[in-house]
Design brief:
The complex is a heterodimer of chains A (1134) and B (418).
Chain A (H helix, E strand, L loop, with lengths): L25 H8 L8 H6 L3 H17 L7 H5 L7 H14 L4 H4 L3 H8 L4 H13 L6 H12 L4 H17 L4 H12 L4 H14 L11 H7 L5 H18 L5 H6 L9 H5 L2 H13 L6 H10 L8 H14 L2 H4 L1 H9 L4 H17 L1 H4 L14 H14 L5 H12 L4 H17 L4 H11 L5 H17 L5 H10 L6 H13 L7 H12 L5 H17 L1 H16 L4 H14 L12 H5 L23 H5 L26 H4 L25 H10 L22 H12 L8 H9 L1 H19 L5 H10 L3 H14 L9 H27 L14 H11 L24 H7 L22 E5 L7 E11 L7 E9 L5 E10 L5 E3 L4 E4 L4 E9 L7 E6 L4 E6 L7 E3 L4 H10 L5 E7 L7 H11 L3 E3 L6 E8 L5 E8 L4 E8 L2 H16 L1
Helix pairs in contact in A: 1-3, 3-5, 7-8, 8-9, 8-10, 9-10, 9-11, 10-11, 10-12, 11-12, 12-14, 13-18, 14-19, 19-21, 22-24, 24-26, 25-26, 26-27, 26-28, 27-28, 28-30, 29-30, 30-32, 31-32, 31-33, 32-33, 32-34, 33-34, 38-39, 38-41, 39-43, 40-41, 42-43, 43-44, 46-48, 48-49
Chain B lengths: L1 E7 L5 E6 L9 H10 L9 E3 L4 E7 L2 E7 L5 H19 L4 H6 L1 H11 E2 L2 E2 L4 H7 L5 H10 L29 E14 L5 E15 L5 E6 L5 E6 L5 H7 L1 E4 L4 E10 L9 E9 L5 E10 L7 E9 L4 E8 L3 E5 L4 E7 L8 E8 L12 E8 L8 E7 L6 E15 L2
Classes of the chains: A alpha+beta (1134), B alpha+beta (418).
Chain lengths: 1134, 418
């Protein structure tokens, strides 16, 4: 550190003013502050009791630190202010403390107690900040305190504090590496954390402290993969890099088969393969034949979950995913990264620089990937030179027989550039193209020969050098070029070029036996006027000619050597003397002279023109080591693939740990839920079963947007697995599942199908529309159809898949859904009979009534009737059976109120599975939308939940915990069920305010022993409640909701709903709306409003001749309108 | 990870240093200065420089080098991306990220750096979290602070860090609720000597300025989303929704942000809105050269091409240029040999041209290269790819926001080879 402190030390000992009081008169401080400008007064200011003075002093001190000035002698005065109440003073003191504590260890201890106090603060942010500063103070003596604090914070309630603890781990480790073992324990604990906030930081700590302990990752692998998308971007980079390494140790090389099948000409993709001997390969090939490669589902999981991150705005994340794909993905899938990497080329030049380096390495091994983007690597005159040279490298790597002509044309323009370094690089690139692609070698040579007449020395020199290299490869074919170059000596003045030509002639004098002596003759004439390097080459040429053709050139050589003997340059004199001794036999010539010919005319190896990026890929791409092509400190080698896969079951975790959900936001990919059995082959059967039992109705997820991460329970894993497999069709070794099936389970399939059907019928008590299923499976003879069928299955079973052929499968699934809707009614009816009796509820509510309701709720707000959030239409506990609505339409009953504690669902209410009894370990939970107003809060949708205890033990303390909701959504939990005896069933009602969105509400369902992650996702029709209005009112409202708020669709009515009754029934079962009386029998009108915000939803079905009809939905909320149209359309067309 | 940060100005002075772990002597920058000297142009300094004990990773922005010192393996892009984020933050805070601005606000800079990195690992990089922690300096606040002695450090704790939408503060309030979106497309093109297009691509961004109260949930849909070939999103965009429906659905950050950047598939033919006729020749043996340039519009769909600026790096041998511009003004810098011509708006009836002669150094041989012509232009109210926003909807809040969408086409890296 430079310049010593400029402040006086006269006050050095007087800083004992005691505990400063905190002034509350900022104004006076402001006035005084201008008087204290000299550094001597800083201490006085710090000791004063005015916060503003302190602040001013601290600011000046921090400015000094920022400039690199030493402010360490102020330490005693500053450290006292660590407890200052002014938050900015405090922060600046922290800055100072962290900077100088290392130098003033004893004094720094004074501050520790403040932080220890902070660690106990009830506010999580204060706890975190205390830990952060405490761990940043590099004072060895407090290591035990830090250790304790970290351990405590690691089990803190707040994820933010735990994150800070994770940050503190590497700090402590760098301070005292002996704490490693204890720290690993903390890391292990934090790795198990389920929040996205912690994940990135703890993996970073893992990488710094114990990157070799890969075993710690096993249990957390799937969780990390699933959380990845929601982790903050910096954490993503670290996690992806770590997972790349992990995957390399745990999975098999996905390209093992392909690399064996490759022609010998093409190199294997991974460096590791090259090392293997041929025998080994043959052996492996035999092995591979016996046992086809099947990708570990966890491997697939990683690839799938990282893919969307290619769209990140953060270049580091994109690069991390790119390297992961490059190192881990099957060959056929690596291509997806090219587009994203090319996109990064638009970024800052530093980013371009790093990306191009990596692209250059990739293009050597995987040229095809970037070929379509060739033009993106064309060079602009404004690019910085280092970028130009890298682009050139990439272009050269991409060159092949088909595109070489375009590339060469492009190179021609580059040669005219003003940037001479770049021109030189271009010439070398041409040389490389010429060596790699035989067809253009002559063209390139001719082009380069023309460049020999360039005015620029650099260009000529470079050309000559490159020509030299090219000729060295096959000199015998190109004696005419050598002759041509010999002629050039008359014109070319650039010494470097002349020298190179002379070297060439000397080297290949045997190919031009007539010209060579003549050139020497000419050169001898001009020897004295030549540049030094040329002179040296003339001597060289003379020596070589003397050795091969001494008859013709003896005298010339003597002449040249004599001239050189008296040259001004001692190098030349020395060389002449040395060569004369070597070649001219004299009586006392040394032992070397007889080897002179060997020495001079030794066969010089042809220079290899290859990319400097060759073999760089043994470094992990994207790493610093790769960029520098040298191992950087702390670099973790990318391990080779294992020969045989380690036991995949190490990644299995108990179910409850697995179903982790993200913080709620994005869940871009959160659809994957593992089942441990998934990985075991033996459990395939079981898996199939599971697939069957999946919740059936959650197809609506396409509309549900982002928060799907937790929407289905664990067994949807298999479904989504199959979905995404088909998504990646076209990839060589895509899906273990589909392959598995197509190979071994052709026959089993049929049985299984049956089994499944049976299962469905018995298990669910709901018709699963086998009619849809069986044609589907029958037609699936080839693997492809099977795949598709499976996808449909997957879909129906409630997993979301990002399939590309969505529409197709969508229609399939929707068909099946609505079919089951209709058919299931009777079944469910029967099933529900044992529950509370179905009462005849008043289907309609007079407006008067609703007004009255309102009055109770908000007395002051009488006038504001229509769009207010809480016009509760049906009175409490009134229950609307949609089928009854149709029967009783037009009535305006009010008083049929009944008050059961649980509400009986009507026959047509669909139940959805919340927790399957197998997943729930005997606890089965179903839910339905009871279409009942939720009494505690009118904005909530009532969800009736039915618990069934299928175990032999009692289940206690059933309650909801830890809801993870979209912003604005709320949950009113049901009262805790204290006891659920074996075999019993209990029904409760909870309220969820979905905020008029179909996004799922995620929460944990807890028993006294276990926790289950569950989610409830409402169909759009359940987000509304009926509104009763007259025809005129309806028309009026509809008139106000025209234009954008109106969505119309033409449709053909299904067979079963051609009459009015059918239509009404279908519509009311699809959406919780009520019929509006209507004069015309050609039209059915329905009205409802959304539960949460009370926005009107008007539905009109106008029937026309035949079965044609028009459906119109008027709603201010476009999304709801659109989705509703879709749902009703489905209901009506079946 | 990042050990220290040094800020170096163009004259090679370190004017700010910050250490996150133990102190690294500033002499480590000597290696950087060496590399800087070797580089012919400022932007040719290698972004990564190895030294015996450290690695220096630097970015150059606004003529300031941000040099990060790291000690062990770390993805270089991680550091580079972070440094750019730092610069963006400074720009956001101080308007300009110049040496003077940083020096004036050194305390704020220090506080920011302290929050952005913890032990060298990025902690809070979202601008709204930072703004909650440290208020950006404004003139008014500076005045108030000096008088009252109050601080520009946020009183409340950074609750945003705990949020599930870390890019948005809670409790945002505006009286005018507005959401503006700028669709800006840049044409990157290389046109060859004969006027044919060698390569042309469209790179677009949608920059948003959203000032909406509460927690609005926006959806933006396009008429023709299939145009977009490759996209990258602000973290707020729900990827799944895009995959499934090609709709941008997001809870926006507060204020200015880049919602989306995209690339229009190169399969689509790119309309080149201007053409250039040029004749730049140097005769052997004479010390004169001819310079003729005419610009004209084409494929502009009736929109005017505005703010046209032509620049060209003439060969070193050119001593002076004696030209005549039919429109606008031209300048020639005899030192850097940079010719710039500020054309303004192209009038299709009367095409702008620049003609005249160049004088060459006496005795110098004819320059063998021809200069590249770089063109900048703007076309308002048009996205050249034809991308159109269909509609913008807001959910989750009850008020009616004011919505605006603006289109613009600009020249990106638009070069004409001669």
């Amino acid at each position: 550190m430079s310049s010593g402190s400029g402040f006086g030390d006269e006050k050095g000992g007087s800083s004992s003013v005691g505990e400063p009081e905190y002034g509350h008169d900022p104004a006076s401080g402001g006035i005084f502050s201008s008087d204290y400008k000299r550094h001597d007064d800083l201490k006085e200011m710090l000791d004063s009791n005015k916060d503003s003075l302190k602040l001013e002093a601290m600011k000046r001190i921090v400015a000094m630190i920022a400039r690199g000035k030493n402010a360490s002698d102020l330490f005693p005065a500053v450290v006292k202010n660590v407890a200052c109440k002014n938050i900015e003073v405090k922060k600046l003191v922290y800055v100072y403390l962290v900077r100088y504590a290392e130098e003033q260890q004893d004094l720094a201890l004074l501050s520790i107690s403040t932080f220890q106090r902070g660690l106990k603060d009830p506010n999580q942010l204060i706890r975190a900040s205390a830990l952060r500063v405490l761990s940043s103070i590099r004072v060895t003596i407090i290591v035990p305190i830090m250790m304790l604090a970290i351990k405590e914070a690691a089990s803190d309630m707040s994820p933010y504090v735990r994150k800070t603890a994770a940050h503190a781990i590497p700090k402590l480790y760098s301070l005292d590496p002996e704490q490693k073992d204890q720290l690993i324990e903390v890391i292990e604990k934090l790795l198990a954390d389920k929040t996205t906030l912690v994940a990135g930081s703890v993996v970073m700590a893992f990488e710094e402290v114990c990157p070799e302990r890969i075993d710690l990752i096993h249990k957390n692998y799937r969780k990390l993969c699933n959380l990845l998308i929601d982790v903050e971007e910096w954490g993503q980079v670290v996690i992806i890099n770590m997972l790349t390494r992990y995957a390399r140790t745990q999975f098999l090389n996905p390209n093992v088969n392909e690399s064996l099948l490759e022609e010998s000409g093409e190199k294997a993709f991974y460096g590791s393969d090259d090392e293997e001997g041929k025998e080994e390969k043959a052996e492996a090939a035999a092995l591979a034949k016996r046992k086809p490669y099947v990708m570990d589902p966890d491997h697939r999981l990683l690839l799938r979950n990282t893919k969307p991150l290619l769209q990140s705005r953060n270049a580091a994340v994109v690069m991390a995913v790119a390297q992961l794909y490059f190192h881990l993905a099957p060959k056929a899938e690596v291509g997806v990264i090219a587009k994203a990497l090319v996109r990064l080329m638009r970024s800052h030049s530093e980013v371009q620089y790093v990306v191009l380096q990596n692209v250059a390495t990739m293009t050597i091994k995987r040229r095809g990937m970037f070929e379509p983007y060739l033009k993106s690597f064309y060079i602009r005159s404004t690019d910085p030179t280092q970028i130009k040279i890298l682009k050139l490298e990439v272009l050269t790597n991409l060159a092949n027989e088909t595109n070489i002509s375009t590339i060469l044309r492009e190179f021609q323009t580059y040669i005219k550039s003003m940037d001479k370094d770049f021109v030189a690089a271009t010439i070398q690139a041409i040389g490389r193209c010429a060596t790699n692609i035989g067809e253009v070698r002559d063209t390139c040579l001719n082009g380069l020969v023309q460049l020999l007449s360039n005015r620029d020395e650099l260009v000529v020199a470079e050309s000559v050098v490159v020509i030299k290299k090219l000729l060295q490869m096959q000199p015998e074919q190109h004696s005419d070029i050598i002759k041509h170059m010999a002629k050039l000596t008359d014109n070319i003045q650039v010494p470097m070029a002349r020298a190179s030509i002379l070297w060439l002639i000397g080297e290949y004098c045997e190919h031009v036996p007539k010209i060579a002596p003549d050139v020497l003759r000419k050169m001898a004439k001009t020897f004295t006027n030549e540049e030094d390097i040329v002179k040296l080459q003339i001597i060289n040429l003379a020596a070589k000619l003397y050795l091969t053709n001494s008859k013709q050139t003896k005298l010339l050589t003597q002449y040249v050597l004599n001239l050189a003997k008296y040259d001004q340059n001692y190098d030349i004199r020395d060389r002449a003397r040395f060569i004369r001794q070597l070649i001219v036999p004299t009586d006392k010539s040394g032992a070397l002279s007889k080897y002179a010919k060997k020495l001079f005319l030794a066969l010089k190896p042809a220079p290899v023109l290859e990319s400097p990026f060759k073999d760089r890929d043994h470094f992990q791409l994207g790493s610093l080591s790769h960029l520098l092509n040298a191992k950087a400190g702390g670099y973790q080698e990318l391990p080779d693939w294992p020969e045989t896969a380690p036991d995949p079951s190490v990644r299995n975790v108990e179910l409850e740990d697995v179903i982790t959900t993200s913080e709620g936001r994005i869940g871009l990919l959160g659809d994957w839920r593992e089942v441990p059995e998934w990985t075991k082959c033996s459990s395939r059967e079981k898996r199939k079963e599971k697939k069957v039992e999946k919740p059936f109705y959650s197809d609506s997820e396409e509309e549900s947007g982002p928060t799907e991460s937790a929407d289905s329970e664990s067994d949807s894993a298999s479904g989504s697995g199959s979905g995404s497999e088909s998504e990646e069709s076209g990839s060589g070794s895509e899906s273990e599942e589909s392959r598995e099936e197509s190979e071994s389970e052709q026959e089993d399939k049929e049985d299984e199908e049956d089994k499944r059907k049976k299962k469905k019928k018995t298990d669910r008590g709901k018709v699963k529309a086998p009619a849809v299923e069986s044609p589907e499976s029958e037609e699936s003879s080839g693997a492809e159809e099977k795949n598709r069928a499976q996808k449909v299955k997957g879909r129906r079973s409630g997993s979301e898949s990002e399939s590309e052929e969505e529409e197709e499968s969508e229609s399939e699934s929707s068909r099946s859904e609505s079919e089951s809707e209709s058919e299931s009614e009777s079944d469910t009816d029967a099933k529900k009979k044992k529950k509370a009796p179905v009462t005849k509820p008043p289907p309609k509510q007079a407006k008067k009534e609703s007004k009255k309701e309102k009055k109770e709720m908000s007395l002051l707000d009488l006038d504001d009737f229509e769009p207010t959030p809480s016009p509760q239409v049906t009175p409490v506990n009134n229950f609307l059976s949609s089928s009854l609505v149709t029967d009783l339409e037009g009535l305006s009953l009010t008083d049929t109120v009944m008050a059961p504690t649980t509400i009986a669902p009507s026959g047509s209410v669909k139940t959805y599975e919340l927790l399957h009894r197998i997943t729930g370990e005997g606890l089965g939970v179903e839910y339905c939308f009871s279409r009942q107003p939720f009494s505690p809060d009118a904005h909530m949708v009532a969800v009736q939940i039915m618990f069934t205890n299928n175990t032999n033990a009692e289940t206690k303390n059933l309650h909801v915990e830890d809801p993870k909701l979209q912003s604005g959504m709320r949950i009113k939990e049901f009262p805790e069920i204290e006891l659920l005896p074996p075999g019993e069933m209990v029904t409760v009602v909870m309220g969820i305010d979905f905020c008029d969105s179909t996004q799922a509400a995620n929460f944990q369902l807890c028993t006294h022993i276990r926790k289950f992650f569950v989610s409830i996702q409402p169909p759009v029709g359940e987000l509304m409640m009926p509104v009763f209005m007259t025809e005129n009112e309806f028309k009026k409202e509809q008139g106000q909701l025209m234009g954008m708020n109106e969505i119309s669709e033409k449709l053909t009515l299904g067979e079963k709903c051609q009459n009015e009754h059918g239509i009404v029934q279908r519509v009311t079962s699809a959406a919780n709306v009520s019929r509006v009386p209507c004069g015309s029998d050609k039209e059915c009108r329905f009205a409802g409003k959304t539960v949460s915000s009370g926005i009107l939803v008007l539905v009109t079905v106008a029937t026309k001749e035949e079965r044609a009809a028009q459906l119109t939905v008027n709603c201010e909320k476009m999304v709801i309108g659109t989705m509703l149209v879709k749902d009703i359309l489905q209901a009506l067309t079946q | 990870m990042i050990h220290s940060l040094f800020l170096v100005n163009s004259s090679g002075d370190i004017f700010l240093e910050k250490h996150w772990k133990s102190v690294v002597s500033r002499s480590v920058c000597d290696y950087f200065f060496e590399a800087q000297e070797r580089a012919s142009e400022p932007e040719n300094v290698p972004p990564v420089i190895p030294t015996p004990h450290h690695y220096l990773i630097s970015v150059l922005r606004h003529r300031i080098y941000f040099v990060a010192v790291i000690q062990s393996e770390v993805p270089p892009l991680f550091v580079i991306e972070f440094l750019h984020r730092v610069v963006d933050t400074f720009q956001d805070y101080f308007g300009l990220c110049t040496e003077a601005a940083i020096k004036d606000n050194v305390v704020v800079v220090y506080e920011l750096l302290e929050e952005m990195l913890d032990n060298g690992f990025p902690l809070a990089t979202e601008s709204n979290i930072l703004k909650e922690l440290i208020k950006p300096p404004t003139i008014l606040r500076t005045v108030v602070n000096t008088i009252t002695g109050s601080t520009n450090v946020g009183e409340q704790l950074p609750t945003g860090q705990l949020s599930v939408v870390p890019w948005r503060r809670t409790g945002v309030k505006y009286t005018n609720n507005e959401a503006y979106f700028d669709v800006v497309e840049e044409i990157d093109a290389i046109i060859d000597k004969s006027g044919s297009t060698i390569t042309a691509e469209i790179q677009g961004v949608i920059d948003a300025c959203v000032k909406l109260t509460g927690m609005p949930d926006l959806t933006l849909s396009f008429m023709n989303p299939r145009l977009l070939d490759d996209v990258s999103f602000h973290p707020c965009v729900r990827f799944k929704r895009w995959e499934a429906e090609r709709i941008l659905s997001f809870i926006p950050p507060d204020g200015n942000f880049r919602l989306l950047s995209y690339h229009v598939s190169s399969q689509n033919l790119v309309a080149i809105p201007v053409y250039v006729k040029h004749n730049i020749t140097f005769r052997e043996g004479s010390s004169q050269g001819r310079f003729e340039l005419t610009l004209g519009p084409k494929q502009t769909m009736g929109k005017a091409v505005e703010s046209v600026l032509v620049s060209s790096q003439l060969p070193r041998g050119v001593l002076n240029a004696n030209l005549n511009a039919s429109q606008g003004t031209y300048t020639f810098d005899p030192v850097t040999k940079l010719l710039t011509w500020d054309v303004g708006k192209i009038n299709p009836q009367k095409l702008p041209s620049l003609k005249g002669s160049m004088s060459l150094q006496a005795g110098a041989s004819k320059p063998d290269e021809n200069p590249t012509i770089i063109i900048q232009f703007k076309i308002q109210q048009m996205a050249i790819s034809g991308l159109k926003v269909n509609r913008l909807d807001m959910y989750g809040e009850k008020y009616k926001p004011f919505k605006g969408i603006k289109y613009m086409t600009k020249a990106g890296k638009f070069q004409v080879r001669t």
